[in-house]
Each structure stands twice: as structure tokens, then as C-alpha cells.
Amino acid sequence: MIITKTVEYQLQDIIDIQVQEKQSRSFTGYRITLFRDSGKDIHLTSYQTNYFKDRQKMDETADAIAKFLSRYSNSRFDS
Asked: Of 8, 52, 59, 63, which one is least surrounded by beta carbons within 10 A?
């Protein structure tokens, strides 16, 4: 059984998107995070391992989301 939760956010509240990096002794991980005006971040993914393709795919995904947000919101994204 899979349980999912849906949460809605206003597009105009999202001010930035980034691929965040977390390093430890055993791994480097990356996740995609939306930053909101309120200061409450939205983590779209959990940390993934440091394989180049994973980071490259996350960068591509974050870029696509930023393009969407710049088109449909009042946010300050580079297009």
C-alpha cells in the first residue's frame, strides 16, 4: 500500500530553485529544493548519490522547473 499526500503552494510564493549538495565521509548527495518567501523550503527529491548522471539529470530537471515558474509566476527566475 502506498500512501501519498498532496500539498498545494502558490506559484508566486516560490522565489528560487536549486540543486542542493550534501557531503559526508561516505557520499555526496543532491536534491532539488524550492525556496519560498516564507522561508519554508519544499524538497522535491530526497538526496541522491553522487553519480554524474544523477546530478546532471537533477540540474536538467531544476532548469525545466525554473523555466516553467518564470513563465507562470511573478518569481525572480532566470529564463
From this structure: 8
Report in angstroms the alpha-carbon separations of 57 from 8, 21, 32, 63. 25, 14, 11, 10
Nearest-angstrom CA–CA distance, 58 and 32: 7
* 12-36 confidence digits (pLDDT tens): 889 999 999 888 888 788 889 999 9
∠ CA 17-76-30 to the nearest 5 degrees?
A: 10
Distance CA 54, CA 70 (A): 24
The beta strands (E) that lie in 1-79 are given as 14-23, 28-36, 42-43
